[in-house]
Amino acid sequence: MNRIATLLIGASVTLAGCADTAALEQRLTDAETKIDAMQAQIDAAPAAGGAAAAGPSAADETAAGELLRSANDQVAAMDYEGAKATIEQLTTNYRGTRAASSSRRMAGELAVIGRDAGDLAVEDWYVGNTSFGDGKATLVVFWETWCPHCRREVPKMQETWETYQSQGLNMVGLTRLTKTSTEEAAREFVSENSLTYPIGKEDGSVADRFGVRGIPAAAVVKDGKIVWRGHPARITEAMFANWLDLPS
Fold first, then answer.
1. Total domain count for the chain?
2. 158 and 231 both lie in a single domain
3. How far apart are alpha carbons 119 and 106 in whole angstroms?
C-alpha cells in the first residue's frame, strides 16, 4: 500500500474518532498538507529506470512562488484567462515546487468558470428559497456545521447580503449535512447567527458541478454561467460592482 493511501485511511480513522470539531478540521488539514507534499515529490520524481533527480532549487522555488502570486493577483483582477496561462507556465516550468502543488486548487476553481450552472437543486429549505434566475447575480456559499472555517465565514455573509441585496445580489448557502452535520444542527446554526439569506440542503450534485473540493467555498452565477469560484473571503467590492453592474 502506498504512503498516500495509508495517510488517507489514517485520516479517515482519526476523523471518525474525533469529537472536537476544531481538532478534526486541523487533523484533516494536516493530512491534506502531507498528501500535497508527497504528490509534489511524485511529480518531481524521474521516470522508472531514470537517474535520480534533485529537488527544485531555491531559485526555482522563488520563481514559482512569484508566478503563484501573479496568478492570485490576476484572479483578484478577474483576469481568469491570464491566471490560467500563469498557472500553466508554473506547473510546466516549475513542476515539483511547493507553489506548483499549491496551485492545484486554484486551477480546479478556474476550470469551472464558464460552465453552465444548471439548476439549483435544493432538497429542503431552512431559510427562504431562491433560484439561479433571481437577481442580477447569485453568490453561492458551500458550508457544513462541523467546519470551523465555515462557522467563521458563513455568518460574515449576512453583512454581504444586507449590503448588496438591494443592489441586485441574490445569495444562497448550501449544505449537504455531511459527517457530523444534522438538520437540527444546521437550523440551530442559522438561528444562532440570525441568517436571513436563503439556505438549504442539497444532495451534492450542485457542489460537484461547481468543482467544490474543500469548504468553505463560494461561487457566483450570472446569466446561467459560473463566472467565479473561490474562497468567500477573497471576494472584493470591485468584484461585486462588476457582477452587479454597479457604477465604478
1. 2
2. yes
3. 24
Residue 176 maps to a domain: yes
Backbone angles phi, psi at 79, to 5 degrees: -95, 75
Peptide bond into 56 cis (omega under 30): no
DSSP 18: -
Reduced DSSP (H G I as helix, E B as strand, rest coil) percent helix, strand, coil of the chain, to 5: 50, 15, 35
User: Cα angle vertex 232, ends 15, 221, to 5°?
Assistant: 115
Is the domain of 179 the same as that of 71?
no
**Complete DSSP assignment for 140-198:** EEE--TT-HHHHHHHHHHHHHHHHHGGGTEEEEEEE---TT--HHHHHHHHHHTT--S-
How far apart CA 30 and CA 28 sit, in angstroms, is: 5
Output phi, psi for 115, to 5 deg. Answer: -75, 150
Same domain, 94 and 156: no
18 touches 5 (CB < 8 A) = no
Q: Are strands 124-127 and 217-222 parallel, antiparallel or unpaired?
A: unpaired
Instruction: Give the C-alpha separation, 25 to 149, whole Å.
Output: 9
Tens-level pLDDT at each residue, the chain (248 residues): 445 444 444 444 444 444 454 455 455 545 554 555 555 555 555 544 444 457 899 999 999 999 999 999 999 999 999 999 999 999 999 999 999 999 999 999 999 999 999 999 999 999 999 999 999 999 999 999 999 999 999 999 999 999 999 999 999 999 999 999 999 999 999 999 999 999 999 999 999 999 999 999 999 999 999 999 999 999 999 999 999 999 87
Please name the residue that has the C-alpha cell 531555491: 58
